[in-house]
Amino acid sequence: MNAGSAWWxxxxxxxxxxxxxxxLGWLFHAPFAGVAAVLAVALGLQISHLxxxxxxxxxxxxxxxxxxxxxxxxLVGPIVRLFxxxxxxxxxxxxxxxxxxxxxxxxxxxxxxLNPQTEILWFNRTAARLLGLRGKGDVGLPIDSLVRQPExxxxxxxxxxxxxxxxxxxxxxxxxxxxxxxxxxxxxRLMLVRDVTxxxxxxxxxxxxxxxxxxxxxxxxxxxxGYLETLANEPxxxxxxxxxxxxxxxxxxxxxxxxxxxxxxSRLESSESExxxxxxxxxxxxxxxRQDVLARPVHPERVQVRADSRALLLGDELQxxxxxxxxxxxxxxxxxxxxxxxxxxxxxxxxxxxxxTDTGIGIAPEHLPRLTERFYRVDQGRSRSxxxxxxGLAIVKHVLQRHGARLSIESEExxxxxxxxxxxxxxxxxxxxxxxxLPGLAAVAxxxxxxxxARRAESDQSSDQPDLGAAIDVFQxxxxx
Length: 481
Hints:
Low-confidence stretches: 434-481
CATH architecture of the largest domain: 2-Layer Sandwich
Strand content: 15-25%
Strand order of the largest sheet: 2-1-5-4-3
CATH superfamily of the largest domain: Histidine kinase-like ATPase, C-terminal domain
Number of strands: 13
Oligomer: single chain
Distance between the termini: 96 Å
CATH class of the largest domain: Alpha Beta
Number of domains: 4
Largest sheet: 5 strands, antiparallel
Helix content: 40-55%
Shape: elongated
Number of helices: 13
CATH topology of the largest domain: Heat Shock Protein 90
């Protein structure tokens, strides 16, 4: 029976009561008084039913629902059903929350829930053990007031959460924790904490082993290279042995480069401090890198430089030279002779940028995320033919990390690649009395490089040696502007 049908019996009973009241009142010559009495009684009953319903609703107990008939009974029925449905969903939600808490408490990783202000809302037992949190006393406190490692604070405020950060805990200096922020909801964050002490120790052991092995290999390789050079220069050497000796020399040189790069990479990985902040003349460094490319027996036809800023870079000059040289060497190795390589330096309000752009063979998109891994090669045969060690980009990555910079890679197969080093503003210094941005400088440099390239092409017809004076002239002119 619906609510509308319940009003008909009530209406008929009320009408009948009114008629009876009017009849009794007519007997006593007061029909309106009889009707008023009936209405007063009916109103009193309805108010009584209303008060019973209100008392029941305020108690929020389904089992104490009043037993009413008529319209009030029809009203109480749907409310009872809504209450029961609400309690069902409430119990179900509570069961899910209990299961969630039990599952997260049993996780081997720590879980911390943060609000948009990075204040702690909840954490499991593993997080309390790893981070030294104290029950409900730490709930509501900012996470960076409890976990104060500078690396984590910088990571938390930086907003770049695609990768975790590894820090040493204040509870146990020998323990390494991996922390990663996972944004969810509206400004809320989930922090996952994992104990990576074992992995850190294994990495340290591997690094020490590689460093020690590489160091021990240097002396034997030096002896082998010396004897090979002596044999290759022997006047009475049999002609059939010339080719094998040259190949042995090439492979010995390649092994020496691998050992050198391994030692440099181990040194960078073992150093946790930031790089020095000594001024580096990037324009002069680019001139030197260009000369090194042009000094090769085989090199790209055009090697351009663009110094859009005369600002200095603050850092470790040896490390920066190693990183930039690796990028330029890669570009020259994978660019054909008819291609071009452009080396550029510029600054803006956010910092400084060094890029190397080539028109070489390019890299497929699926390989880009792994290029900075040690010994990772896109094409094993092609990479080995260039004589590279497979460690260049790994060295670049670690050098940039020590300088607070990052490496971005853009590439398209068959069209070339661009490697860009982005340095923070704190690593850029403008020379006194010099405007940092010179819009016309790049055009002048490119024009002079084109002229230098034309002169070099003419000289190549009569000599196998590149014209290094062209590059020197370009940057002498740039330095005088």
